[in-house]
Amino acid sequence: MARAFAGLVLPVLAASPGVLLGDEPASVAVGRASGPIRLDGRLDETAWDAAGVITDLVQQSPVPGGPTPYRTEVRLLTDGETLFIGLRARDPDPARIAIHTMQKDADLEGDDTFTLVFDTFGDRRTGYYFRVNAAGARYDGLIVDQETVSPDWDGIWDAAAGIDSGGWTLEVAIPGRSLRFAPGAAAWGFNVERSVARDRTTLRWTGTTLDARLPDMRRAGSLLLAGGLRQGVGLSISPYGLARHDADFILDDSDAKGDAGLDVSYGLTEQLSGVLTINTDFAETEVDTRQINLTRFPLFFPEKRYFFVEGANQFDFGIGLGEDFVPFFSRRIGLFDGGRVPLDAGAKIIGRQGRWGIGVLDVRTGDTPDAPATNLFAGRVTCDLDDHLRLGAIGTRGDPDGVTGNWLGGLDAVWRTSRLFGDKNFAAGGWWTRTGGDPPAGDPGGRPDGWGLKVDYPNDLWDNVLVVKIFGDSLDPALGFLPRPGVRYYRAGSSFRPRPKSGFFAGKVRQFFFEAYPTYVTDHAGIVESWEVFTAPFNVESPAGARLEANWIPTFERPTAPFEVSPGVVIPEGAYHFTRSRIEGMTRPDRPLQWGASVELGGFYDGRLARIEGLARYAGRSGHLQLELDGLHIQGALPAGDFISRLWQLKTAYSFSPDLVLSLYGQYDSVSRNIGVNARLRFTIHPGADLYAVWTRGWLHPPGAERALEAEPLDSEAVVKLRWTFRM
After folding, report:
1. Neighbours of 260 (CB within 10 A)
2. Which of 21, 114, 386, 669 has a CA between 20 and 30 Å from the CA of residue 470?
C-alpha cells in the first residue's frame, strides 16, 4: 500500500512548480574552547571570545522581519567533549522578564525562554529539542515531525541563567555522550529561538516566516562542528537503590523492604543505542491526572515511565492517528486490570543507522495472580527514501494477560515538505495494519485489519486537513490502544486564521481562528454510529496571549448497547440528536496570576448536561512558588436519572532551585470518591544523579458522609530512591 500511495502522490507534487529545493541555509561554526567554562550563567570566561557567534536573531512573530528592541547574541563552543551555548538576551525593561517556574519539563509558554533544536542525523525530520527559561528551568524532548515535539526524552545536560540590568544571560552545556549523531558528520541541522512573553515576540535564526515551525528541521541552518564532538565509548550504567514502605489500611497490613535495579546503555554504533534494564522500578513517575469519562469508550492516559519514554519517537507510526489508534502503546506493559505487574527485565535498541530508523523493545514481565509471566515484543523500522518520503513497518507480539497470543503488523508511508508553493507546509501519508491471535478477537469472520490516510496543509493563514481511518471489527492490538474497533472514521475541516493589520482590530487582536471540522463515523455496513460538526464562529487571541472562543457543536450518537455515564445512570441504545454550545476564555500567560474558564451547555443524548471547568494559577515572579487549582463540575438531567460529577485538582510546587523541587499534587473525584495525594521531592545532585523522596496516600470519602471533609484511609506508599548514572 505504501508504494502505491507514493506512486500516486509523488508525481503530482514533483510536477508542481511550487515544490522548491530552497536556498543555501545559513551556517555558523562552533569555536574551540581555549579554557574551562564554569556554568553560572555569566559568560565571563575568556574562552567565550573564541566562540562562533550568531550576532542577532530575526523577528518571526508577530511581524516577520520587523524591527525589535530585543537584541540577541548566541555563542557556540566545544572542548571536544561538551557543546557549550551562551546567550546574551538584551531587554530594554528587564523588570518585565517573565518567569513562572524552575521545574524541569514544566509549561514554559508564559516565560521568557531560549530554545535550541539539533538535527544530529541529517535526516531533516527528527532531532533534539532544548528549552530554558530566564530562571534556568530546563525542558527537553525529541522532535517527531515538523509540528510535534515529544517531551518524553530526558537527557543529561545542564544550564544556568541570570538577569542583570541589560537583560538576561544563559549558559548551556550538552555533553556529546548525551546525544546520538551520525559518525564523522561535519555539520548538524541547527536553529535557535528566543521568546519574549509579555508581547509574545518570537525571534529566530532561520525559518522566520509565520508558516515556519521551529521543529521543522527542513528550515534549519547548519552548525559546523569544529573538530567534531566525541561520544566516548557510549557506555552508561545507571544503578538504583530504594527503600519502600507500603500500607493497606483496609486489610490492616504493611510492609517495608529495600530493592535495587540496573539500567545499562551502550552505543552499538555512533547512532544506535542498546539498553538493558533489570528489576525496573518506576517509583518516581508522576501520577496520572484523573479524568471523568462521559463516553462509551476507554480513556487515553499518556506514558510517563522513563524506560519506555526514552526513544519513544522511534515507535511513532502512521499519520493522522492521534489517540484513535496507537499500534504500540507501552502502557500495556507493566499494568493489567488496573494493577501493577513487575518487570523482571527488558531490552531495547533505539536510534538510526544511515537512512534507517530502528526501535526494538523486548520485556519480560513478572508473575502475578492476575497475569502469569510473559514476554512482550515491539519493533519498528523506517527508511528515508529521500528528503521527503519515509516508509516504515511495525510489529508487536504478545498479550499482557500472559495467556493468549497476539500479534500486529503494519506498514506506513509519509511524504512531507515545507516548500509547497514556495514556503508552505504539506504532508500526506497512509498506513495499513493487521492483527491475529488465539483465539481471534471479535467475530471469527470479521475484519482483522485497518488502514487510513491523511492529507494535511498546516499553515498560518489556512490549516486544512482530510483524514480517513478504517478499523476492522476484529482488529485487536493487545499491545496497542484502539478504543473503537469496527468503524469507518472520516474527518475533514479547515481553519481560516487571519491576522488583522489595519482597521479597528489592528493592535487589539493578534489572530482570529474561524474553524469548521465535521467528523463522520459509520460501522462497516454503512450505518451511521456518530457524527459531529465542531465549529468556532468566534475565536480570538490578543497580542498578549489572552483567548476567547465560542463553539457550536451539533452532534449525533447511536450507541449499539447501553452504557453508564454515572453510577446508576444508563444511556439506552438508540439514536440521539443534540447540540452543544461552549464558551471559554483564558487570561494572558505572562502575568503571575492566570485564570480561565469553560462553560458548555446543551443537549446530551435524551436529556441536558452542563459542564463547567475553571482553573487559577499563581506563580511568584522569581519562579520559586507555583500554585494551581483546577475544577470540573458536570451536572446532567436525563430520563434515566440526574447526576453530578466533580473533579478537583490542586498542584503546589516550591523550587529551591532548578535542581531541588518539592511538589504536592492532590486530586478528588466524586465518581470514585477517592482522595489522592502525591508528594515528591526531587534533588538533582548533578546531571545524571537524582535523589527522590515520594509519598502517596489515598482516602475514601464514604457515601452518605455527614461532613464534607470526612475520609477513611485506604493505602499509603513512601519511597526513597537514589539513581546514579556513570558514563564512559
Report:
1. 12
2. 386
